[in-house]
Amino acid sequence: AQSVTQPDIHITVSEGASLELRCNYSYGATPYLFWYVQSPGQGLQLLLKYFSGDTLVQGIKGFEAEFKRSQSSFNLRKPSVHWSDAAEYFCAVGDPTDSWGKLQFGAGTQVVVTP
Amino acid sequence: EAGVAQSPRYKIIEKRQSVAFWCNPISGHATLYWYQQILGQGPKLLIQFQNNGVVDDSQLPKDRFSAERLKGVDSTLKIQPAKLEDSAVYLCASSSTREGRGQETQYFGPGTRLLVL
Questions:
Q1: B62-94 pLDDT per residue, tens
Q2: Res B89: pLDDT
Q3: Residue pLDDT, tens place only, A59-107
Q4: What is the rounded average pLDDT of the residues B50-57?
Q5: How far is CA B6 from CA A30, A51, A94, B85, B99, in A?
Q6: For residues A31 and A97, what is the distance between their CA atoms, to the nearest angstrom?
Q7: Which residues from A are below 8 Å from B104, CB to CB?
Q8: Which candidate from B50, B55, B110 shows the least CB-CB separation from A42?
């Protein structure tokens, strides 16, 4: 069965430190890959997406993600976090053969930023 | 550009009552999604519309949930009767078909937080 896993439920990071959020997927072929962020009381916002090509993807707010086929992973990184990065982050996968673009979301990783 | 609008933002009802949520997508977006997000979980797609037609409702509990998008613009999701396990945030999202199939960016509204007592 197809699945997407975010192994870390909760991460605490100091402001200015680097951040890496893990995402692993189980799919028959390389899926479309997305990272969304959800701030308290708000809807989800797309950070970045990967379909093919260069495996290092740049997104908004200084985030980047790297697709590693051999590890079935699409980890999100930021070199230096800001207090405003405190939020919940969701990895999502889409099936390239699905005409309607349905997404399957991971359970999310809650990021807390300390001073 | 106005974002996806949802109302109400919060709703508290007792089990077996009915409730309805409204969503107005971004202007011009043909695709509209309703998701259920239970606390501690990622969003789960309930139903997807392309214009006013349903393209996926495989995870919609059809015995109690219904949704419509009559004019291909705004949409209503209804629960009747509600159960305790329906307590969740209901998210509406929309996307344009101008991007490649399956590659569309979904734009989410702020959600409706439902508590069933």
A1: 999 999 998 889 999 999 999 999 999 999 999
A2: 96
A3: 999 999 999 999 999 999 999 999 999 999 999 999 888 777 789 999 9
A4: 90
A5: 34, 30, 25, 21, 24
A6: 9
A7: 101
A8: B110
Residues of A with CB under 8 A from a CB of B: 9, 32, 36, 41-46, 49, 51, 90, 92, 94-96, 98-103, 105-108
Q: What is the DSSP string of chain A?
A: --EEE---SEEEEETTS-EEE--EEE-SSPPEEEEEEE-TTS-EEEEEEE-SS-SEEE-GGG-EEEEEGGGTEEEEEESS--GGG-EEEEEEEE-TT-TT--EEE---EEEEEE-
**How distant is the Cα of A2 from the closest Cα of chain B, in angstroms?**
14
